[in-house]
Amino acid sequence: MKIIEPLKLLITILVITFILVNCSSSKNSDDKKSSEIKIIATGASLAGANGMSFGPDGNLYVASVLGSSITVLNPESGKIIKVYGETEGVIGPDDVDFASDGSWYWTSIMTGEVAGFNKEGKKIIAAQLTPGVNPITFSNNNRLFVSQCFFGSNLYEVDPSGIKKPRLISDSLGPSCGLNGMDWGPDNRLYGPRWFNNQVVSFDVSDNSMRVEASGFVTPAAVKFDNQGRLHVLDTGSGILYRIENRENLEVANLTPGLDNFVIDDTGRFFVSSFTDGFVKRVNLDGSVSELLPGGMAHSGGITFHNGKVITADLHAIRAYYPNGEEAFTQRNVLGMGIMGGALNITSDGEQLILVSWVDNDVRIWDQQKQKRTWEKSGLNAPVSAIRYGDQIVVTEHGSKRIVGFSEKGDLETIFASDLPAPTGLLEDKNNLYVSDRTLGQIILVAVNGLPLAKKEVVIDRLVTPEGFVKKGDTFFIVEADLGVVTSVNLQGEREVIAEIPKGSQAASPLQPPSQVFNGIAMDDEGALYVPGEGNRVLYKITNFL
What we know:
Mean pLDDT: 91
Largest sheet: 4 strands, antiparallel
Oligomer: single chain
Helix content: under 10%
Distance between the termini: 55 Å
Strand content: over 45%
CATH topology of the largest domain: Methylamine Dehydrogenase, Chain H
CATH architecture of the largest domain: 7 Propeller
Number of helices: 1
């Protein structure tokens, strides 16, 4: 008994201790904060709306380059009926048109592919040209024509069957753009706008002769004829839709700059798309405007916190929001013509905004208050990110695999790294310069106190496609784009997924950076995080994660 009783006592003590420890552990687990993620702003229904055409079913087919889709839309209700995407073989379509037999084709501006579906629904490659193929139209006798814009300036006739080689009609329509939104005229001539020349021209495709049909526009984007044979022109620079009569430009509707294309139905109603805002609107016979698909954020990726506002880079615009999601302002840009320039990424240097676009291959400093560029560096090789680091503007160049710094005069440079497979995001913290490499899956320290390190230091590894990142204390918050998560990693190696977000888009061509739309992250003065949802065009706010 003297032996058994102490044993019972010991067992009882151990059991009680076990229960108390587990209760304590359970309480600590319950008390641990869990991050909160909420949508504070919503954007466009489409990731940019580009070329359009009516199908034989009476529905509207709307191409979206960055959405990599063609959306079938009811022209009365705006209801989305079907979406053709990468599963069906549709990649980065810029424009779409139908042949009389019901077959239909599109252009892929990033890959140079001219493709379509025959009347049996089988995909056909009509031509493989160079990037830039943009407008597409069938003549009345089913001849197919395409042109290049922004990445080329040629005009071609293409065999819809893909058997014959494309016929070059003109290679002298530049600079930078041949024709955009084209249409076949009642006089059997091919009509189209010259984006950078502020005019509409027509071609006799039999002898390749060209003549000017209309001028006096800011930036003409598309032309179409109505069933009365009257020519209409969409001016993206002014946002105005015109009808051309007796060489006069008569205003039909005044919309928003940044428009892409339009079509006219048999009743005379106009359907207009916007690449900047991603909307589709209908101009009714009485002049009123109906919104079929709402606009807003269309390509948002890069993001920064600046002067109390969250500002996103939306390719053809920058959009600013207050921390509660209320819109502060939108600064639109007309591709190749606007004073601001395009923006696929954005950072704040405290005073101004630094804008990056690999489409334009440049970096600019933009003063939003003064509405002007204060500095720019052009001729770069696929720049992805840029920040101020000391007295330099530092850029990640995907095309050259390097990180390079420029003085504000643009005539001095420092090579911070030159052998990274996919340098992506940048961060300055306490005079330290960090970069994310999307391919290596690492956060790397490349400079201290303005000087490149002789040997780069891997700070965090085993990441999956890291793009944007920020730092607070010893903790990094990283967007792992292909996973669709925001991950916190501290310098002790502790990791936690604090939010799930849409996965990032994939590059349509090897010529593009793998971060086609940069997936960024920003932190406000209170420590809240903001991440654009590229895939669903929303703005997330993440709190309660520390």
